[in-house]
Structure prediction request, 223 residues.
Amino acid sequence: GEDVEQSLFLSVREGDSSVINCTYTDSSSTYLYWYKQEPGAGLQLLTYIFSNMDMKQDQRLTVLLNKKDKHLSLRIADTQTGDSAIYFCAENNNDMRFGAGTRLTVKP
Amino acid sequence: NAGVTQTPKFQVLKTGQSMTLQCAQDMNHEYMSWYRQDPGMGLRLIHYSVGAGITDQGEVPNGYNVSRSTTEDFPLRLLSAAPSQTSVYFCASKPRQGAVSYEQYFGPGTRLTVT
Prediction:
């Protein structure tokens, strides 16, 4: 089947940039998403990118999409302790398919 | 609007017991779905519904039943709980199946433990 893959852990220092990477295999996905999950909470949509775009910037967040390599990344500039959470990459064709999530730890 | 609500927040069951996880939305969304979240596996789709009276299976439907008698409610039933069903369950809704998924809203989750 089609899989969405992400590394499971990332640790950065406060103020540094974080880059979370994701690969997907369904080239027909029309949208790709990043969700954030804080402890004990549901999923919060952070941002999304349409498949015909290469880049999308939204304040501290930058999403890069390499459609040829089926690679998606999320860059968080000036990472803060409040950014500590699990970040899920997801693709959407008819139904959404999620990666396993990357746990971001921000050290002061 | 309350958005998507789920009850209970936590539940412990013994193997073989049955129970229903409740999900409700007040946004008049046609499309509702249930996911389970397991460590290292992301969210997997259990069942979904494109409107009242219509349900279909997702990726991991075995051991679960659903019904959709109203637009607002989409309960998930475990007929005979098994330890493999220990997980966190999320309900989600969006206006319709074809709606872009940035309009999808998730409930807060139900943490289920089966002993």
Summary: Chain A touches chain B through 22 residues (CB under 8 Å). DSSP finds no helices and eleven strands in chain A.
